[in-house]
Amino acid sequence: MLKFWKKKPPAADQATPPVPASVAADAAATAPAPPLDEAAIDAIAGGGTDIAGADAYADDAGGALSDGDPADAAAAADEDEAPARRSWRDRLAGSGFARGLASIFKRHPLLDDAFLDELETCLLTADVGVATTTDLMDDLRRRVGKREFADAGALLDALRADLVARLKPVEQPLDVGAGGRKPFVILTVGVNGVGKTTTIGKLAHRYKNEYRSVLLAAGDTFRAAAVEQLQTWGTRNAVSVIAQGSGADSASVIFDALQTARSRGTEVLIADTAGRLHTQAGLMDELAKIRRVLGKIDPEAPHEVLLVIDGTTGQNAINQVRTFREAIGVTGLVVTKLDGTAKGGVVFALAREFGLPIRYVGLGERAADLRVFEANAFVDGLLPASLGGHG
Ligand SMILES: Nc1nc2c(ncn2[C@@H]2O[C@H](COP(=O)(O)OP(=O)(O)OP(=O)(O)O)[C@@H](O)[C@H]2O)c(=O)[nH]1
Ligand SMILES: [Mg+2]
């Protein structure tokens, strides 16, 4: 558990270390612009200077249609109701949470105290949170007392409906075409190892499938391998990656990328950042700097700050949201690794505590495993109606 703690976190308040020569050479070939300090960025933002070497980038916009309605068709095919639902179920059925629930319904055909107690324990163990679990169980116990449910199937229906109702308010998909912003800038943030870079790769894949032009910014200048990891996703999806060489400053990489995206008319810019803990004041300050610097080109950028949460994290996710919200503001969440975890209940805890939109969830490591969050499909994946002997 708590995978992100396993990675050795970078020393607190440390300045960005230089990138090794091999990566630097690779990155420099892609984007030779030198690191910028904020004064230089001010000068550039004011003067509208073009970035040196921007022409050298491969043109990912080739063939991309800004107003392409075929995108809807492709997206619709991808999100087609029945297969999408099956896929949620396939992915979530193996999770510890879903298996725990399935086992309770199988072993307790009668709605007795043992059944209710086990259900309560399962919800708590899965990190649904004490407050939500108490609400849910008080309601179910009251209704069982009034003999409202004929059998476990009827109770399951009520539980499913209640869970969906709790998640519906945070089912707010991200519309990167909204407001005609070009580019729509997404900044991804989160603690170490939660799945930021992987999520960016998956998003690039998704938006390309919607015939949008996409550019990625390698704003994680902290770990050399991070640039390579993003470049691999870029190559896989035929999307350019803006990176800088040795000693790069994260804000300047993302600033460069925004300038490039503007000059190319790119529709979506997604920026990676280094994983950071709330105790690393220097790294948290860096996020504020990124926001300031982007604001010099587009006062509304970033248009979306996506906080990526590891679904196996448990209640610690609540602290993470709080900290990042204070440091940079968060407009949407991505909950990853919901496949195979016993802790997927954190989604309910997050919904209750913050009401922040859950934009996407990660149901596996492949590009297609990032799903737009849907309350119905999520609950159906955890608790199929068939568990209660129905349908
Ligand atoms: N099973 C599963 N694994 C995932 C998912 N999303 C990401 N991962 C895996 O989680 C690990 C960490 O992912 P990264 O994308 O490198 O995480 P990160 O937040 O960028 O990490 P840092 O840059 O080190 O902070 C990788 O092995 C990913 O394949 C998911 O939805 N399901
Ligand atoms: Mg990363």
UniProtKB/TrEMBL annotation:
Cellular-component GO terms for this entry: cytoplasm; plasma membrane
Catalytic reactions on record: GTP + H2O = GDP + phosphate + H(+)
Enzymatic class: hydrolase
Xref: SUPFAM superfamilies: Domain of the SRP/SRP receptor G-proteins, P-loop containing nucleoside triphosphate hydrolases
One term of GO molecular function: GTP binding
Chief place where the protein resides: membrane
Keywords of this entry: Cell membrane, Cytoplasm, GTP-binding, Hydrolase, Membrane, Nucleotide-binding, Receptor
Protein's membrane topology: Peripheral membrane protein
GO BP annotation list: SRP-dependent cotranslational protein targeting to membrane
Bias (Low complexity) ranges: 21-31, 63-76
Region (Disordered): 1-31, 63-87
Residues annotated as domain SRP54-type proteins GTP-binding: 357-370
E.C. number: 3.6.5.4
Stated role: Involved in targeting and insertion of nascent membrane proteins into the cytoplasmic membrane. Acts as a receptor for the complex formed by the signal recognition particle (SRP) and the ribosome-nascent chain (RNC). Interaction with SRP-RNC leads to the transfer of the RNC complex to the Sec translocase for insertion into the membrane, the hydrolysis of GTP by both Ffh and FtsY, and the dissociation of the SRP-FtsY complex into the individual components.
Assigned protein family: Belongs to the GTP-binding SRP family. FtsY subfamily.
Record-given protein name: Signal recognition particle receptor FtsY
Protein source organism: Dokdonella fugitiva
Gene: ftsY
